[in-house]
Design goal:
The complex is a heterodimer of chains A (324) and B (320).
Chain A lengths: L1 E4 H15 L3 E5 L15 H9 E3 L4 H13 L3 E6 L9 H8 L2 H4 L9 E6 L14 H5 L5 E3 L4 H13 L4 E6 L6 E4 L12 E4 L4 E5 L2 H15 L4 E5 L2 E3 L3 H11 L2 E4 L8 H13 L8 E3 L13 H4 L3 H12 L1
Parallel strand pairs in A: 2-3, 2-4, 4-5, 5-7, 6-7, 10-11, 10-13, 13-14
Antiparallel strand pairs in A: 1-8, 6-12, 9-11
Chain B lengths: L3 H23 L14 H8 L7 E3 L5 H6 L4 H8 L33 H15 L5 E6 L6 H12 L4 E7 L2 E2 L2 E2 L12 H5 L2 E6 L3 H16 L5 E6 L17 H9 L2 H11 L5 H24 L20
Parallel strand pairs in B: 1-2, 2-3, 3-7, 6-7
Antiparallel strand pairs in B: 4-5
Chain lengths: 324, 320
Amino acid sequence: MAPKNYCWALIDAIREEMERDDDVVLIGEDVGAAGGAFGASRGLLDAFGPMRVRDTPISEEIIVGLGVGAAMTGKRPIVEIMFMDFFGLCLDQICNQAAKMHYMYNGAFKMPLVIRTSTAVEMGIGPHHSQLLESWVGHVPGLKVVMPSTPRDAKGLMKAAIRDDNPVVFIEHLALHRNKEDIDEGELLVPLGKADVKRKGRDVTVVATGLMVARALDAAETLAKDGIETEVIDPRTISPLDIDTIVASVEKTNRALVVTSSMKQFGFGSEVSAEIMERAFFHLDAPVQRLTPPFTPAPFGKHFDEYLNPNAGSIADAVRAMLK
Amino acid sequence: MTDKIELFERMALIRQCELQLNEAFAKNLFPGYIHSYLGQEACAVGMCAPLSNEDKIVSTHRGRGHYLAKGMALEPMVAEMFGKETGICGGRAGEMHAADPDLGILGGNGIVGAGLPIAAGAAYSAQLDGTGAVTVAFFGEGASNNGSFGETMNVAAAWKLPLVLVCENNLYAEMTPFSDTVGEKDVAKRAVGYGMQGEVVDGNDVLAVREAAERAVERARKGGGPTLLELKTYRWGGHFEGDPRKYRTRDEEKEWQERCPLRRFREKLIESGEAKEAELDAIEEQMKADVAKAIEMALAADTPAPETAHDHVYVPGEVA
């Protein structure tokens, strides 16, 4: 066991997979000589050379397109789109090309492609660098969407994503990059499509993603002092969603709150809420609630963060309100 | 495909395919839109002539010529156009798409310009493997005004990718004359700005196209990087069959049909004594019969069971 931060856990995952399989390549802006815009590919250029760790121009559409074409011809590319806010520049390659290639051609091509990207929610960088857009891609059949909240999950999910034969959008939270956790050395695979029950409880289910997982756990700690036992579930994979684990929990607790950093409107929380309603309505003692930032862009500056985003206090308040 | 008679045969096959699919469409037997390749046959056949099965092509929404020129089997290709389960992609790809990985055919595309970055990816893959395989990206002049073109030109030149970018300039971007949308009517001139070779070619002269293709493919194979070829041609039909073509005159269409690539090649072969008229007539008759049979088979085949809509959304299997 060694303490690793989220960022180095991801680098380890990519390095291990590139060592394991020569077909794994990394393509993107600043991934090589610069070691990654966030230092998240440090050492890989030296280890694998400029052909397998390829710096690109600032051309998002071809970054993803290179991955699609390489995946169709036997490679297992990881392509990096620095911020998820830039997805508008390459959504065709993600949603029309990568997502549909296996389907359209009747299974003739596999699409072992990882689209590595980040969200910088709560980092004060302003409206073009602060969105969590998991619902954009979660809406598209053919894509898998992954969003780890811990260093261990980041490593295990990245390794599984690289070995998956489907296109996987891998969303990293930059605000989590420095978080540390003890991780076993050696092989670590976290299966895609499997939620993780981060804390057991009998009174209420809190489904939280990304940055919100740790806050939900903090809230659960506070609530426990008042005798409220909170079950915290991190879906880890946005699509395909492990709804069974969530429903099983709600059948036990009879209450559910979904907490995300993304918009409530047409969002991931709405999807989880609707699934619970359809599958576990008669187990519910209270309406399913969603706790999210308000429906605004994120303005520049960290001074807005506390006002805009859910925190342990507001999560605990929301749970208490559901138990009244 | 070095034999000129083979080139003629392949062009005649494409011609017949396009003519007879249009007839099927006119009789309301076709289940969707047809984006006809009529008039552009020399482009596909000349470009694919120097390619092997290891070489890749990426096609467009107007792709039948490319598929046939690269060797896709006629009957499953035609069945695919009709959306039948006997189609090369089980009937689920349809009129704007078909692929055959074994022949290096990486598919058509319903999104104008989207094939270009994918072709660059295939070329990058070949570059990594050092196989000498070349990728040909077919696209229209319409796609040359898409951002994907600029991104692909730049990366291809910067990385010296084994890629040939083939712009079939048929003068109309869907229903808008290309000349209304650009300040420079030669797409090939843009090559200079990106640091690669560019060449304008008579796209209705199959031998001229083949020569240009051989030069570009050879350059790519030897590590000399990409080439932009602009094949000047003409789309005989509308953007799709049934398009009333109000954006151009019938005289203009007639003028271009005088430059029919198939007839020009036929005359050349006869004049040079490389073929006899009767021999070429027989080839055309054979192609006509082959296509008629393929369409008949496609019409008689079943459409896929609706439940198969769920197939292949994801590649199954756990990761280990």
